[in-house]
Design a protein that fits this description.
By secondary structure, the protein is of the alpha/beta class. It has five helices and six strands; from the N terminus they run ββαβαβαβαβα.
């Protein structure tokens, strides 16, 4: 009797760049080569995190230059996702404060127009990345993570 070895599918590490609620936008994780997932919602090609503002654009990466470009356009909606106390210490003049750490953030975002272009910022870019991921999951596809307030005011 000849014993056959079972077919082994190698484990590979690939970047998982899908928004994860309450977690980072990207993380390395082992996946079986035969089970790789590509693109948002089954679209072809791996999803990059360029921070662009086009339809289907990923949102997690900080893109301060693109955010500054969009801030010059009067139709861009600017969201400061820091706490109200941080907002009072200084904010962009056109910014609206919606605290990403509050329990009702998703409900507040649901009231916004998904067709608008949004620039998000916080102190460093981490909370605005989380907010952008939440917005992307709710159907917003024109969202740019501007990063930190200090970076946008330079």
């Amino acid at each position: 009797m000849v014993l056959q070895r079972p077919l082994l599918i190698p484990l590979v590490h690939e970047k998982n760049c899908f928004p994860t609620p309450g977690g980072p936008g990207c993380q390395l994780q082992p996946v079986r080569a035969a089970n790789r997932r590509y693109g948002p919602r089954g679209q072809g090609g791996p999803r990059s995190l360029s921070g662009g503002a086009g339809p289907g654009a990923p949102t997690a990466a900080v893109n301060t230059p693109k955010a500054k470009e969009l801030l010059a356009q009067p139709t861009t909606v600017v969201l400061d996702v820091r706490t109200p106390a941080e907002f009072l210490t200084g904010h962009l003049s056109q910014a609206r404060n919606i605290n990403v750490s509050s329990d009702d953030f998703a409900q507040e975002v649901a009231k916004l127009d998904t067709a608008q272009t949004y620039v998000l910022y916080c102190r460093s870019g981490k909370r605005s990345s989380k907010a952008a991921d939440i917005m992307y999951q709710q159907g917003f596809h024109r969202v740019v993570n501007g990063g930190g307030y200090a970076d946008l005011t330079k």
